[in-house]
Amino acid sequence: MxxxxxxxxxxxxxxxxxxxxxxxxxxILGFLINLFLFAPIKTLADENAWLGFYGSIxxxxxxGIITLWGIxxxxxxxxxxxxxxxxxVKTNLFLYDKEGTGIFVTxxxxxxxxxxxxxxxxxxxxxxxxxxxxxxxxKIVDEYKGxxxxxxxxxxxxxxxxxxxxxxxxxxxxxxxxxxxxxELPEKYKDGVGTKLAESINEYYRRKIARESMSEAxxxxxxxxxxxxxxAGNALDxxxxxxxxxxxxKILCDNxxxxxDDYSEMNNRFLxxxxxxxxxxxxxxxxxxxxxxxEIPYAVILFIKNLYVKSLKNTKENKHMxxxxxxxEHQIAELNISYIDIHGKEHVxxxxxxxxxxSAIQEKYGYKEEYFYFKFCKK
Length: 379
Description:
Helix content: 40-55%
Largest sheet: 8 strands, antiparallel
Number of strands: 11
Number of helices: 13
Structural class: alpha+beta
Number of domains: 3
Shape: elongated
C-alpha cells in the first residue's frame, strides 16, 4: 500500500461516527443559537417566538442529516455492495452417428434442427430435382405393384409434375411448400392420387431437410453452454477452467472397460487435464437475459465421442454389462469460474461437472441419435 493510500485510510471515518459528529455539532449549534436570545437586539417578537424559530431550524437540520444518512447507508449496502454470481446451467447435447459421415455432437436435436431449417430455408430447383421426382414416382409404382393403382401412377407425366411442384413450392420456405402440396396436389390429381403424391414428395423433402440441416450442424465449430449471472453487478474478465486433473472421468472409463491401450489411444489424440477457456470483459447484466454463451472445450467433445465408440465396441463384443457404467450420473470434472466485480475484487466459484447419457439409441433418416447432458453442481 503506497503512502497516499495509507494517508487516506488513516483519515477515513466510519459512517456511524461521521453522522454522530454531525448530529452533535447540530445540537451544539442549537445551544449557541439560543445565546442570541439574550443578545440586546431590538425585536417586536417575544422570546417564545425566537425559541420556536431556532428550534425549528435545529430540528430540520437533524432531520435532514438523518435523511442523508439513510440515503448513504442504502446506497452503500445495496448499489455499491454488489456481488455477481456466475452460474452455468444444465446443457443438453446430442450425438449423431451416420455411416459415411462419422460421429458428431450438436447442441440441438435433429427435430429442432430440421424445424429451424424448414422454417428459414426456401425451396430452389435444379435439373437433378426432376430425377428425384422420377425416383419418387418409381417408388410409388413399386409400392402399388400388382394393384390397379400401379398403372395410374406409372402414367403420371414427370415433366408436368415437376412444373406443378415448381409453381407450388418455388421460393417458399420448406414449411409453406409442404403445406401447399397437401392442398394443391389433391385438387389437380383426383381419386386419392394427389394425396399420395403429396405424402411421398413431403417425405422426400423431409429427408432432404434432414440431410442438409444435419450436414450444416456437422460442419459447425464450437458447442456452447449458457452461463448466467444470478447475483448483482457486472462480472468482468471471466475465466473458466475445466479441471480433469483429479481423474473423476477415469473412474467412469474404467467401469466402461477402458484398458491401457484405450487410454493410450485417447491420450495420443488429446489430453484431459486443466483446460482454460477465457471470456474477457463480459458484462453479463448488460443484456436483457443476463446470460452469455461459453464454449465447451473440443477435448471434452472428443472425450464424449470416445465414450460412445467404446460403448459400440462393448456391444459388438457382447460386453453389455460394461455399458451399464453409462447409466446414471457421473462426475467427470470440476468447473472453476473466476471473475472480477466492479470494485476490482476477484471471486471464484467451483462446480462439479456431472455427466449422463441416455442408454437407448434411436435412429432416424439414417442417423443414430444419443442424448447426453452436463449438469453443474455448486460445491
